[in-house]
C-alpha cells in the first residue's frame, strides 16, 4: 500500500499541465502548474497516519481566472483509501474539465476520508469550515446520510458521482451524476423481458444497504406492474444466510431469473454456490452497478465459472461509442500519459457544471442552486436553464467469459 501511494504521489508531484486562460488583452496564455511535493507528502502522511480529512489547494488556483474571483470546489470521498489510482483519476478528471472552461473561476481542494459515518461527518464539517463553495464526491449513500441536512443549511451544493438519489438522501442541494434507480430497473427488465420469458423469479436483497433497499422497492414495483410473480428474500452483508435459497432450488421449478441486490463479493458467492450445486440448471442473473465497470470487474473476478448469463446496467462505460465521450478519453491520455477511469469523466463534467454555477451564482431563494446552468455533459447528464436535471445515457452490460461487454 505504501509503495502504491508513493508512486501515486511521485507521479503527481512531477507532472506538469497546461491550462489556457484569458489575459487582459483577451489573448490566450499558457500557465504550467506543478503539484507541490510538500503538499502531497502531507497527503501521504494524513492518509496513512490519521483518519482525518486533508485539504490541498490545487495549482489551478494560481491562474489569472481563479485569482480574479476564486471559488473553492472540494473533492471528497473514501475511494483513495483503497485505490490511490482511483483518487488520482478523480482529481485529474476534475482538473481536465476546468482546463476546458474559457473562464475558470474554480480552485480545487481535496478532502478524502476513511470509510465510516463518523469520518464523513468530520470531513463535511472540515469542508464547511474551509469555506468550500461546492462539493463533488461521497462514494455511498451511507456516507451522505449522516450529513444530508448540512448542505442545504450552509447552502453548499453537493454533486455525488456514483451515488444515485435514494430515499434517505433526497434532500435540497444534493444532486447525483447517476440516474434514479427506477430508471435502471425499468431499463434492464424491459430489455430482458423482450428476449426471454421468466416463470420463477428470485429477488435477493441486502437490506442493510440503503441503495439496495431502494433497488428492492423499484424491482418489486416493476415486477408487480408486469404481473410477474417472484419470491423475495432479504439478507445482510455482514451475516448472509445463503442457505435460505437452498429449498428454492430443490423444487421442481427452480428460479430461472435471480436478481442480486448485493455487493459484488456476495453476489459472486451466491452465483458460485448456485452454479456449483445446480450446474445443469439454466439461470439468468441481474445485478447492479456494484458489480463494477469495464475496467474494474470485482464480481467477474470472483466468479468460478465465467460462462454465466448475467446482466447489469451502467450509465457510463468505456464502451460508450459517443465521439465526444471518446474525445475526452483521448484528451486525458494526452494530458496525463495514462488511462482514465469512468470517474475521471464524471468528475470532468461535474467540475465544469460547478464552474458555470460559480460564474452565474446570484442570491436566490430557489431550492435548486443550479437554476440558470445550461450544460450537457459527455456522460449524458444535462442541467437545463430551468434547473431541471435529465440523463441521456444508460447501457446494459453483459457478463461474458472475457469480462464485461455491451449487451446492446
UniProtKB/TrEMBL annotation:
<dbReference type="InterPro" id="IPR028082">
    <property type="entry name" value="Peripla_BP_I"/>
</dbReference>
<protein>
    <submittedName>
        <fullName>Amino acid ABC transporter substrate-binding protein</fullName>
    </submittedName>
</protein>
Amino acid at each position: 500500500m505504501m509503495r502504491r501511494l508513493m508512486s501515486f504521489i511521485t507521479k503527481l508531484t512531477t507532472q506538469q499541465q497546461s491550462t489556457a486562460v484569458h489575459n487582459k488583452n483577451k489573448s490566450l496564455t499558457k500557465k504550467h502548474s506543478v503539484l507541490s511535493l510538500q503538499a502531497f507528502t502531507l497527503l501521504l502522511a494524513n492518509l496513512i497516519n490519521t483518519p482525518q480529512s486533508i485539504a490541498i489547494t490545487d495549482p489551478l488556483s494560481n491562474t489569472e481566472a481563479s485569482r480574479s474571483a476564486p471559488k473553492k470546489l472540494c473533492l471528497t470521498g473514501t475511494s483513495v483509501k483503497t485505490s490511490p489510482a482511483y483518487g488520482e483519476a478523480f482529481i485529474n478528471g476534475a482538473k481536465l474539465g476546468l482546463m476546458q472552461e474559457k473562464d475558470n473561476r474554480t480552485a480545487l481542494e481535496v478532502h478524502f476520508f476513511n470509510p465510516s459515518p463518523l469520518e464523513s461527518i468530520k470531513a463535511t464539517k472540515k469542508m464547511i469550515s474551509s469555506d468550500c463553495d461546492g462539493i463533488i464526491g461521497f462514494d455511498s449513500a451511507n456516507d451522505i446520510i449522516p450529513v444530508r441536512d448540512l448542505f442545504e443549511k450552509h447552502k453548499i451544493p453537493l454533486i455525488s458521482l456514483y451515488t444515485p438519489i435514494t430515499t434517505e438522501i433526497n434532500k435540497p442541494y444534493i444532486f447525483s451524476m447517476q440516474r434514479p434507480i427506477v430508471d435502471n430497473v425499468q431499463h434492464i427488465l424491459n430489455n430482458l423481458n423482450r428476449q426471454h420469458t421468466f416463470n420463477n423469479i428470485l429477488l435477493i436483497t441486502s437490506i442493510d444497504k440503503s441503495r439496495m433497499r431502494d433497488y428492492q422497492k423499484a424491482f418489486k414495483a416493476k415486477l408487480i406492474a408486469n404481473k410477474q410473480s417472484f419470491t423475495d428474500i432479504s439478507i445482510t452483508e455482514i451475516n448472509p444466510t445463503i442457505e435460505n435459497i437452498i429449498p428454492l432450488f430443490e423444487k421442481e421449478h427452480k428460479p430461472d431469473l435471480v436478481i442480486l441486490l448485493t455487493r459484488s463479493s456476495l453476489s459472486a458467492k451466491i452465483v458460485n454456490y448456485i452454479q456449483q450445486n445446480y450446474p445443469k440448471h439454466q439461470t439468468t442473473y441481474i445485478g447492479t452497478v456494484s458489480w463494477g465497470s469495464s475496467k474494474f470487474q470485482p464480481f467477474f473476478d470472483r466468479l468460478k465459472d465465467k460462462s454465466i448469463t448475467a446482466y447489469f446496467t451502467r450509465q457510463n462505460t468505456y464502451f460508450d461509442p459517443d465521439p465526444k465521450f471518446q474525445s475526452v478519453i483521448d484528451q486525458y491520455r494526452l494530458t496525463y500519459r495514462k488511462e482514465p477511469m469512468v470517474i475521471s469523466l464524471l468528475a470532468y463534467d461535474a467540475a465544469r457544471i460547478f464552474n458555470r454555477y460559480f460564474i452565474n451564482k446570484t442570491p436566490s431563494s430557489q431550492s435548486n442552486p443550479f437554476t440558470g446552468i445550461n450544460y450537457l455533459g459527455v456522460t449524458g447528464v444535462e442541467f437545463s436553464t430551468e434547473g431541471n436535471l435529465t440523463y441521456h445515457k444508460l447501457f446494459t452490460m453483459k457478463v461474458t467469459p472475457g469480462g464485461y461487454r455491451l449487451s446492446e
